[in-house]
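Lecture 7 notes: from sequence to structure.

We start with a single chain of 230 residues. Read the sequence below before looking at the structure.
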Amino acid sequence: MARFTVLVADDDQEIRDGIEIYLKNEGYDVLKAADGKEALELLGANEVHLLVLDIMMPNMDGITATFKIREEKNIPIIMLSAKAEDSDKIHGLSVGADDYVTKPFHPMELMARVKSQLRRYVQFGTYEGSQKKIVIDGLALDEEAKEITVDGAGVKLTPIEFKITELLMKNAGRVFSINEIYERVWNEQAYNAENIVAVHIRKIREKIEADPKNPRYVKVVWGIGYKIEK
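Now the structure, written as tokens:
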């Protein structure tokens, strides 16, 4: 069985050490950082499969670190913060985080989210299905390579963004409600999912649409949800 390495970045040593205990009990290798700058250094020197990243840290905060990480890597990022407001969640997700956990949290909730994100990451990176390709106008999805191209140019999507695009492309013409998208991509019951899904849709549009405000592919059906036309 493959071993995964999780990098935990938080300026609170007790939180770092506590998360480490639970992660090791689940069989993960653990790296720890006290701020975003140290996290980037560890990420550059080690193979890391998932990050648990606090937002409020000295030297470099989690938002800045995530922005820099997303310039090169698509590994899952779970953000931690004491702030529970939707605006903070949206900010974190908009720069590339895949999930968000509000402090204080139950350790087993975090472990469940770690497992879920790693499961999607492995499926995203090592999927061995058919060589089927789905092509909708200039948008193409290669199921074997897990790649998206637009007019022949590769597009770098996070695992969550890829799963949403894949869902819509495989069901072209069908309208999915926000809750349906959340439950099928995140594999958990939807609760206050509207902003989370909307942020990811916006990021997808920024990457695949020539004009995100006048989308060619991902369409909104007002009051219902989203679809990709056949």
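Residues 133-228 form a domain with the Arc Repressor Mutant, subunit A fold (CATH 1.10.10.10). Keep this in mind for problem set 3.
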